[in-house]
Design brief:
The complex is a heterodimer of chains A (313) and B (536).
Chain A: H1 2-29, H2 34-39, H3 45-55, H4 61-73, H5 87-122, H6 127-141, H7 144-158, H8 174-208, H9 211-218, H10 224-261, H11 266-275, H12 279-307
Chain B: E1 4-15, E2 22-32, E3 36-40, H1 47-54, E4 62-71, E5 74-75, H2 81-87, E6 92-95, H3 109-120, H4 126-139, H5 145-150, H6 158-170, E7 176-180, H7 188-205, E8 208-213, H8 216-222, E9 225-230, E10 233-239, H9 240-245, H10 250-258, E11 276-288, E12 294-307, E13 312-316, H11 323-330, E14 338-343, E15 346-347, H12 353-362, E16 363-366, H13 380-390, H14 395-408, H15 425-437, E17 443-447, H16 455-472, E18 475-480, H17 483-489, E19 492-497, E20 500-506, H18 507-512, H19 517-524
Parallel strand pairs in B: 3-8, 3-9, 6-7, 7-8, 13-18, 13-19, 16-17, 17-18
Antiparallel strand pairs in B: 1-2, 1-4, 4-5, 9-10, 11-12, 11-14, 14-15, 19-20
Helix pairs in contact in B: 3-4, 3-6, 4-6, 13-14, 13-15, 14-15, 15-16
Chain lengths: 313, 536
Amino acid sequence: MARLIFTRLLAAIPVMLVVATFVFLLLRLSPGDPAIVIAGEHASQQQIESVRMALGLDQSLVVQYVLWMSQMASGDFGNSVLSRQPVLSLIADRLEPTLVLATVTIILTVLLAVPMGAIAAWNRDGWRDRVVMTFAVIGFSVPSFVIGYTLVLLLAINAKLLPVQGYVSPFADPWGSLRHVILPAITLSIVFMALISRVTRASILEILGEDFIRTARAKGGHEKRILWKHALPNAAVSIVTVIGLGIATLISGVVVTESVFNIPGLGRLTIDAIQGRDYPVVQGLILVFSFVYVLINLTIDIIYLIVDPRIRY
Amino acid sequence: MDEPILEICNLSIGLNAPAGKEVVDDVSLTVWRRKITCLIGESGSGKSVTSSAVMKLLPGGLRLVGGQILLDGHEMTGANAEQLADLRGRVVSMVFQEPLTALNPVMRVGDQIGELLKIHRPKMGSQERKRRILELLGDVHLPDPPATLMAFPHQLSGGQRQRVVIAMALALEPALIIADEPTTALDVTTQAQILKLFRELMTRHESGILLITHDFGVVTEVADTVYVMQNGQVVEHGSAADILKAPQHPYTRSLIAAVPKYRFRSPLPPSDTPLVSAHDLELTYTTRGFTGRTRQVKALDKVSFNIDPGEVLGVVGESGSGKSTLARTLMLFETPDNGQLQVFGEDATKLRGQALRRYRADVQMVFQDPFKSLNPRRKVGLSLTEGPIENGVSKAEAVGRAHELLDRVSLPRDAMNRFPHEFSGGQRQRICIARALAMRPRLVIADEAVSALDVSVQAQVLALFEGLKNDFGFAMLFITHDLRVASNICDRVLVMHRGRVVEVGPTQTIFTAPQAAYTRELINAIPGEWDLTPAA
């Protein structure tokens, strides 16, 4: 297990190198002079030149590449054009709200969607199945900002049960934090839940037709045991795969949701950086998100090992 | 005094559709304690459906039409969920046919057996439960019970998994054990051990056994009472001795007649230019056992043999003896670590690119499972013409060939436009044979090609192979675990055991005067008593 984690992390290095190279080229090869863009609309020729010098853009592409890579390797992601702060500390400051939101979303989704899918499969074509599948169709088709604003209107503005927007750190005020994060988490998790409940249902239905389910039934005892002890663990590999893919797409959902609920996380930072043409920050974010993808994939691979003894790497 | 443990009276089961046909029609049978009752019939005769009705485990799409099932005094047809939860596993248990799929793949073997004890003996402590599981694993003669306890099903062989399923069936010493083709997927030596085990356990636990089989060899070996089923009805029943000696019903007679008889062929004179010449082939697999150690398995250990043009060489041996590895090596799916393999006068192991493609076209394979070896979403015509067209035959000619072959394997030409699921097992195997022959191969490898078929169908397919071989003149490597089948089609037989060639020689010599101890063991394990004098 330790060896797997180690080799996988080693394998992440070339992946990150490719991503870094791509980010490097994105800025250098995109049309327009980055120095002009970075210096801003009303900069004088002299200001543009000094930006060019500062960023090393007057050097050849190869020299720039080596320079960029060595900066990256030493953890120097450059400074934000807008705030002049180091990119890395900027990202670190915004990490917590996004992590809290993502974690609550994932927990909420897995806890609800997996049992929903399992019950739908067990109750195939019954009313519970119909309810779950109707929910899934709605979850897929309604855009998350519509769900977000609707929830705000109903629960925050009309019923006054929850705060409208904003963010409170769980370290400062756990209860307040949860109250703030619950609406955005529900908003984010609806699509995710629709996806996972559908996949859980489909894979359990497939497993329920297997021979070993009949064996389990022939053992006697209550039928519930067959669903939870035999069908669900066997469906786990496909469910875990989809949860992993879902977490990856969650990142794009975070951007929209954080805007709707005005949460100062990585999503907001991304939007602000793109709107402000803050190239160093955009680069840093792409690298961080890519690294998160790599980590998620590694985690999924490790979970495979745990849920299915037949899988060995 | 013997008492009945199961009484089925006038049981009828129909398709779950309006005006559905009855798949089980007015069946009555009785199973006694300390007796093995055999239910025999071909696939589709309703024997498995009847047995699953006893546990109220009817497959979807079927419904009970009428009749009664009295199990140890309990009426099963009207049993509710609570009664079933109590009776299943405790009073009646079942051994299923497919040892490879009957166990939960992600649950440890010990936990799967322990589950029964947890359900029915909730007060049993975990130490005591473990002791009981170990005892059961020992009862079914599994090697190293403590290690097996912790193993996952995929780490065990087919025979070992079947023993685990049997251990599960015995866990609570039920009054009735239903065994549905428990040995069909196993080789003869394992089958003999398991049948012996059934007898032994039955007397020890005072259980009754309902054994479902299509093999009269098995019936001869173990049955006390026999019921013969055809098209959902019991056509004949009586004591095993009576039925085997003096079958009354024509169907019973035809079933007994279809059991392969020994029929030795005179071997061809050896040729100077063999088609295949293998010398000292060696192939080692590295696997990881359930103890976590890596283990080297010599799948092929100094294997040498020849196949002459037009000859059928049989390969027999139990599962894991290296038969299939040999076939894969000959197909060049595996590269031997050592040794020479000359095929069609060329060094086969050195073939690459175009030459390899040509080689693969010349060597064709027919697989064991006709249900899985045809693409379910492709029409038969496409399967038959794809290979030739890929290899440069014009479409018109490929279609012509396919028509000819369908005629030859006695299937209608319109089969081209139908899907595999529209055919029975025997018909599908004919399609697979036609598919292989469409390539005009010089060598055909048949890997257990008739093992999944009913005996009567088996006889037809063997005759078909024989006829086609004469017409097309290909040589054949015929792999089988069934020695009776081997005797019917092979010129010479090669006996394999643990990757080694134990013995090779003309079929009749192998059967009547086996030299190696292992060959003798294999021949003795064949169920039933067989007359070794060749049939006319």
